[in-house]
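Quick one, tokens below. Sequence please?
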């Protein structure tokens, strides 16, 4: 049996050669581990699962009884009254104290259990499967059974079950958005890297737990499982983050401490006065010492507005129910109030402000710009030019471009439905992408023009594919439209970086046919592409040409196939904004909440989207994550966008705004949204952590205080409104009961110094003082 310290392997895995990593784990690159060896390693290391932080019995069931100083003081007073009452054989409403505490705690416990059940349902606890090679045989196993040294077989659509070093790769692309925040899949390779300290985005010869294979295939040797993976380490760090004290609870606790001092002083004064007064009375008129203590406790405790705790809890609970109708699952009851108090909202871009569904919005073909309506992967939309609907058959250059795009992709779109909480519409139509999101955008564009990929494929056959190459920045497919017999013509379709594809082209397609493409025209195309790129669009250049089918025994040479192309144009692709998000941002700003965009994108792209949303304004700063530590407090206040941010830097952003970094003169209530592993630490550190329910990882949801079931920024804005209204109600109640308690307590304190004074005594032998006071306080 051979297991390794994953921490040490993490530091060197990207620098090790394939043979070295295989030798380290005694793994055969072709046959993998033996079944017996894998079973032995499983017994030694345990299941490949993340450490799940379970709420202790104390935190879940005991803490709600004593998490507030008002409750603690009242409990102490209640216990003393109960003991004294039993000792002097007097029954009163001291148990009323315990009723309040129990009701308050039951509501808090009920909400925590309710949220845990909702989260459990949201996780859809189906076990992940993966393919490994053991004893030279491919087998599908539960991901939790993967061990160090296992040889993973990675295929398009697979979820990576552990951290692993790639030992073979065939056009392998992996989506690491849940870990790094990068929305575009990363091409992977096997070559060792020379960089000693590399971050996850730089480790292109490794794959990580939680990422997805979008294209190609490969093999990888597992070097870390469970808590030792990058995802597992984040999960472990979350357990070390102390629960943030909610502002409302913090203020009530501070207030209660001062009241506690007043209560002790009042209790002492009344006791001393009563005992001295007792000494001057005849023996038959003197009160027992316990009765004096009981009377002093009751009068002193009137300064404690216990009603606030119960009523605030009830109000928070009603706020939770209201938020649930709007699609927000609340895991931390007190965070409902904090949501209404936030002044800084740090929001992820991809999937929160945007739809995380790459969409073609414009097409440049035949010297004309076409507009494409609709967004996302649903084929709802049209292609227009100058506001008029375009007939694809009447636009040869556009048809050629769309045809070339649809025949040069390897992507599938799977239709489905998704339940959505809140509102009348309970089911949402969806399409999931298996493959490259940029290729999915081309697929949907073809559907909007009326072209069918199935019909085109029925008329042709792919005879060759030159996969995307990171150095060449392009992909090419070759089709036979006549069955591929020798002597027939084959069609070449190329897509890639616009400037490179244009550089390989010698002709330009127009509606009248191909025309020569001189250097000046090529420069114009590149300049037009750059103008669209400055607006935040990704561009894909598309070209084609016809070639003679090679004679028997001849093979196609990529360099020759991809030269002298006919440039068809380029498409402008973006991750579209969610509907209504711009208005939601404006509402937050008008309510005094500053919205900060935090993204892994390039600053230029982030600034373009931020400007469109109104997050970035003239005079604002766009700062890269690496520069956060060096920012002055004045500069921090001018930042509206943080770009190229990694997970640790997100924590630093939250700390800077909270004032806990030691560099700020004031603190603010900060909310943080996120969906990936890279967001989890910041979610746990923020005053209000908001995770995405659909795209969010399990770690992000566990770290958050609230979960947005539809992943929409609009829902967050609605939640802030609900929180603001709730805060106004709570403030009114607190002021009301503080004033009434002060009046009542002052009266009772003053009457304690009037000998023989009784409260509400209609002439009976025993005053109704205790019963009436407790009843009044309760009501």
């Amino acid at each position: 049996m051979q297991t390794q310290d994953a921490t040490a392997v993490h530091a060197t895995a990207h620098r090790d050669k394939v043979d070295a990593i295989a030798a380290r784990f005694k793994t055969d690159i072709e046959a993998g581990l033996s079944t017996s060896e894998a079973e032995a390693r499983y017994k030694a290391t345990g299941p490949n699962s993340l450490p799940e932080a379970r709420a202790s019995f104390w935190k879940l069931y005991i803490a709600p009884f004593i998490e507030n100083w008002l409750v603690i003081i009242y409990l102490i007073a209640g216990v003393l009254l109960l003991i004294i009452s039993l000792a002097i054989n007097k029954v009163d409403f001291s148990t009323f104290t315990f009723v309040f505490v129990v009701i308050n705690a039951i509501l808090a416990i009920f909400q925590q259990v309710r949220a845990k059940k909702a989260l459990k349902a949201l996780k859809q606890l189906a076990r992940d499967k993966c393919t490994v090679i053991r004893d030279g045989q491919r087998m599908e196993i539960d991901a939790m059974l993967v061990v160090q040294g296992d040889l993973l077989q990675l295929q398009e659509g697979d979820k990576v079950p552990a951290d692993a070093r790639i030992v073979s790769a065939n056009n392998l692309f992996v989506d690491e958005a849940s870990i790094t925040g990068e929305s575009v899949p990363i091409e992977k390779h096997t070559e060792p890297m020379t960089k000693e300290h590399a971050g996850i985005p730089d480790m292109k010869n490794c794959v990580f737990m939680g990422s997805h294979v979008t294209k190609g295939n490969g093999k990888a040797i597992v070097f870390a499982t469970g808590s030792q993976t990058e995802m597992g380490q984040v999960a472990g760090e979350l357990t070390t983050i102390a629960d943030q004290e909610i502002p409302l609870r913090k203020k009530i606790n501070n207030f209660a401490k001062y009241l506690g001092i007043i209560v002790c002083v009042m209790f002492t004064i009344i006791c001393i006065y009563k005992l001295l007064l007792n000494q001057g009375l005849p023996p038959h008129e003197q009160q027992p010492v316990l009765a004096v203590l009981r009377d002093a406790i009751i009068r002193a405790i009137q300064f404690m507005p216990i009603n606030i705790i119960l009523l605030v809890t009830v109000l928070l609970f009603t706020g939770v129910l209201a938020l649930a109708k709007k699609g927000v699952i609340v895991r931390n009851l007190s965070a409902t109030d904090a949501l209404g108090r936030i002044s800084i909202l740090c929001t992820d871009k991809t999937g929160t402000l945007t739809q995380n569904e790459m969409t073609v919005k414009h097409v440049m073909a035949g010297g004309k710009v076409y507009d494409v309506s609709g967004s996302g992967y649903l084929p709802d939309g049209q292609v227009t030019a100058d506001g008029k609907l375009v007939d694809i058959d009447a636009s040869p250059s556009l048809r050629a471009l769309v045809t070339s795009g649809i025949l040069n992709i390897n992507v599938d779109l799977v239709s489905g439905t998704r339940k959505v909480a809140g509102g009348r519409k309970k089911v949402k139509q969806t399409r999931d992408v298996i493959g490259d999101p940029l290729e999915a955008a081309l697929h949907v564009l073809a559907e909007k023009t009326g072209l069918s990929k199935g019909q085109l494929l029925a008329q042709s056959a792919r005879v060759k594919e030159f996969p995307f190459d990171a150095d060449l920045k392009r992909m090419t497919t070759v089709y036979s439209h006549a069955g591929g017999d020798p002597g027939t013509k084959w069609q070449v379709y190329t897509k890639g970086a616009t400037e490179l594809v244009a550089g390989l082209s010698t002709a330009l397609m127009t509606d009248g046919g191909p025309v020569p493409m001189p250097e000046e025209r090529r420069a114009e195309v590149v300049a037009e592409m750059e103008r669209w790129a400055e607006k935040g669009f990704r561009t894909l250049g598309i070209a084609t040409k016809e070639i003679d089918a090679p004679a028997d025994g001849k093979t196609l040479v990529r360099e020759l196939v991809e030269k002298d192309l006919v440039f068809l144009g380029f498409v402008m692709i973006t991750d579209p904004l969610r509907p209504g998000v711009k208005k939601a941002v404006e509402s937050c700003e008008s309510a005094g909440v500053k919205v900060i965009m935090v993204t892994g994108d390039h600053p230029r792209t982030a600034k373009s989207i931020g400007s469109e949303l109104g997050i970035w304004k003239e005079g604002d700063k766009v700062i890269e994550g690496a520069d956060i530590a060096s920012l002055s407090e004045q500069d921090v206040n001018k930042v509206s966008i943080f770009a190229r941010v990694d997970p640790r830097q997100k924590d630093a952003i939250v700390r800077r705004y909270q004032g806990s970094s030691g560099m700020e003169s004031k603190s603010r209530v900060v909310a943080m949204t996120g969906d990936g592993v890279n967001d989890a630490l910041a979610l746990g550190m923020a005053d209000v952590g908001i995770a995405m329910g659909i795209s969010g990882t399990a770690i992000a949801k566990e770290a958050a205080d609230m979960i947005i079931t539809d992943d929409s920024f609009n829902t967050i804005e609605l939640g802030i409104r609900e929180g603001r209204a709730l805060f106004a109600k709570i403030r009114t109640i607190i002021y009301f009961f503080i004033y009434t308690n002060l009046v009542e307590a002052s009266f009772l304190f003053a009457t304690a110094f009037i000998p023989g004074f009784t409260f509400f005594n209609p002439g009976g032998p025993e005053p109704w003082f205790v019963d009436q006071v407790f009843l009044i306080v309760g009501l």
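The chain has four domains: 6-52+128-226, 57-121+244-312+730-778, 331-354+579-720, 359-574. The mean pLDDT is 80.
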